[in-house]
Automatic annotation (TrEMBL):
Pfam families found in the cross-reference section: ABC_tran (PF00005)
Lineage: superkingdom: Eukaryota
Domain annotation ABC transporter: ranges: 53-284
Keyword Nucleotide-binding: yes
Protein name in UniProt: ABC transporter I family member 17
GO molecular function, one term: transmembrane transporter activity
Cellular component, GO annotation: membrane
Organism phylogeny: Eukaryota, Viridiplantae, Streptophyta, Embryophyta, Tracheophyta
Listed InterPro entries: AAA+_ATPase, ABC_transporter-like_ATP-bd, ABC_transporter-like_CS, P-loop_NTPase, PstB-like
Keywords per UniProt: ATP-binding, Nucleotide-binding, Transport
Entry's family note: Belongs to the ABC transporter superfamily. ABCI family.
BP GO terms, sorted: phosphate ion transmembrane transport; transmembrane transport
């Protein structure tokens, strides 16, 4: 199902009209504008690259009243890898989870292809905006059973050939087809989890520290798969990572988050030029 042809069936809340990104942002008095004006060509992206995800004025406060996200606004172009980095507790994972409603954002703050995600059926949204977590969790059964899980919920059974193709996309050979989760290393299990996510045919892939528990070889395997997905399938990938070098290896653009605010957006090779004092200190200590 093409997402652009299905909004009339999927959007069930008529109070949230499509967002027009050509309109200026309304900034109330005293509010800091956190949408950084970064031209596409300044970060090495084509001007005609369409925005896939838009975040506008996203706020979150903890139960104790602490600010987690402070009026975050950012455009994420389609077909690129965006890295999100910053100190622990800066709101990176919260921002990521808002993009497919693992944390429910307020209405009219997060948009997919110009449509408020709060008005999209949540299961449909999570198929189109898939997520890979820090540690893989596989279901009981074989690797093939895991990969078939998502399509099966929609009443579709993947053929053996389709499973083999998804294994190949995740850089796993056909010998993994009948293996159980207990036979896999953490790195292999993470790639199976990736293949399971790809079985839903997502247009966007969210990754929350997906290689932090992996060895260097497994990490490189995952990175190679992500770059290939971007290159071959034009997939939009948003990745939270504490690994500055990893972000520099694979990201097209980097979003630097400090204390719930976006303080820098730049190309990976320009990170040393960050101006924000806390961001600069974080980058220096992480290098």
């Amino acid at each position: 199902m093409e997402i652009s042809q299905s909004w009339s069936k999927i959007i069930h809340d008529g109070s949230s009209p499509p967002f027009d990104s050509s309109l200026p942002l309304e900034i109330s008095q005293g509010e800091t504008r956190h949408l950084l004006a970064v031209e596409m060509n300044e970060i090495g992206l084509k001007d005609e690259a369409e925005t896939k995800i838009q975040v506008r004025g996203l706020n979150k406060v903890s139960d104790k009243g602490d600010c987690i996200l402070n009026s975050v606004s950012v455009d994420i172009p389609g077909g690129v890898i965006m890295g999100i980095i910053g100190p622990s507790g800066s709101g990176k994972s919260t921002l990521l989870r808002a993009l497919n409603r693992l944390w429910e954002p307020p209405k009219n703050t997060v948009f997919l292809d110009g449509n408020d995600i709060c008005g999209i059926d949540v299961l449909f949204l999570r198929r189109k905006v898939g997520m890979l977590f820090q540690l893989p969790v596989l279901f009981e059964g074989t690797v093939a059973d895991n990969i078939r899980y998502g399509p099966k919920l929609k009443g579709k059974k993947l053929s053996d050939d389709e499973v083999y193709k998804l294994l190949a996309l995740a850089d796993l050979d056909s010998s993994f087809f009948n293996k159980s989760g207990g036979e896999l290393s953490v790195g292999q299990a993470q790639r199976v989890a990736l293949a399971r996510t790809l079985a839903n045919e997502p247009e966007v892939l969210l990754l929350d520290e997906p290689t932090s528990a992996l060895d260097p070889i497994s990490t490189q395997n995952i990175e190679d798969v992500l770059v290939k997905l971007k290159k071959d399938q034009k997939m939009t990938i948003v990745m939270v990572s504490h690994g500055i070098k990893q972000i520099q290896r694979i990201a097209d653009v980097v979003c630097l988050l400090v204390d719930g605010e976006i303080v820098e957006i730049m190309k990976p090779d320009q990170l040393s030029e960050a101006n924000h004092p806390m961001a600069l200190r974080f980058l220096q200590l992480s290098s």
